Amino acid sequence: MEKKVVVIGAGPAGMMAAGKAAERGINTILVEKNDRVGKKILISGKGRCNITNNTDIEGLIENIPGNGSFLYSAFYTFSNADLVDFFNKRGLMTKVERGGRVFPVSDKSKDVVDVLFKYVSANGARILLKSPALEIKASGSRVRSVLLKNGKEIECNSVVLATGGASYPGTGSTGDGYDMARKLGHTIVDLKPSLVPLVAEEPWVKELQGLSLKNVSVTFLNKNGKKIYEDFGEMLFTHFGVSGPVILSGSIHIMEYGFKNVKLSIDLKPALTEAKLDERIRRDFEKYSRKQYKNSLDDLIPKKLIPVIIKLSEIQPEKHVNQITREERKNLVHILKNFELTITGSRPIKEAIVTAGGVSTDEINPSTMESKIIKGLFFAGEVIDVDGYTGGFNLTIAFSTGYLAGLSC
Predict the structure, then answer these.
(1) Per-residue pLDDT tens for 152-189?
(2) pTM of the predicted model as reported, rounded to 2 decimal places
(3) Domain ranges (residues) in the chain
(4) Is domain 4-193+355-408 classified as CATH 3.30.70.260?
(5) 255, CA 20 to 30 Å: which among 30, 45, 158, 220?
(6) Burial class (CB in 10 A: 0-12, 13-18, 19+), 274
């Protein structure tokens, strides 16, 4: 039988795997349940697609708290620099933004999908859309075929399973790959949301909905007040709690607490010590000495935040600034440097950017992405139990593991 590979899932990992396998001259079929390829890529990076990060390989590993060391072979075989080169050579120019994030110069995720689609089709791979895979069949411990939902069975020597995780199910990531792998004897590490918005207990978060804070310092603390994680950057208040880059990255670290019994402390003025902030407030209070307290904070914090800070400071809103005591002012300083929320949970996995958990890395050969249980079965992307922070790391995982699977299958 002629060598044939079936790649299941036309996301970043699947398209890279199919393109690479076809480039090697292998008869390649890419099956996709959706009516188009790259659906999740299109919404990534708010429609701009944060392709990768321009750190070094050690930097990539450090930013992948979920089994990062498993990815050394994949990253050395096809690095983030190789990935940028891949797109540049195919006419997609890239740029580097804050935190090393790499984006297309065009700011259009569609351009990334177009390059990948051309890579797959130009190398002769067949793409079957609206063709959900139902089952991977094996003879003994070797792959035999892929059964599609329409009843068609495709005989093959190799399968690359690149079905994604269980987040954003509207894009096709509905967890089908986990069931297929489990049926073949693979262990599925419990699925949890990763890079997920968090739910807060305080009712006043609703008043702050839509407020974005830049250049703030955040610290997650356990119930004993011990520091779990800290970060600096941008965050957002929502109707249920908090989101934004620093919150999403922090969510990975509080997963083990079930996203509960954790305090989030926000330093609204990280550039100032408590003493310097006190000086700043005294200057503002002198400037607005004849005004009421509620009208004296406009130069200090965003307008939307003022009513909440007033409530928490327990200083009467109508009190004139020149009557505020030193103790009251010190308490205000403390609140601005330690603006606290109680985290009670996370949003559901379908709202997470990435799925933590998946096919156990113990059962996959990191040098080839081949199953240690079933010969001819390869894994790529989010279906594997690996996950990273925001900043292009998760897409790098998908592209690198996809390339390695396509090279090895």
Answers:
(1) 999 999 999 999 987 766 666 678 999 999 999 999 99
(2) 0.88
(3) 4-193+355-408, 197-346
(4) no
(5) 45
(6) middle
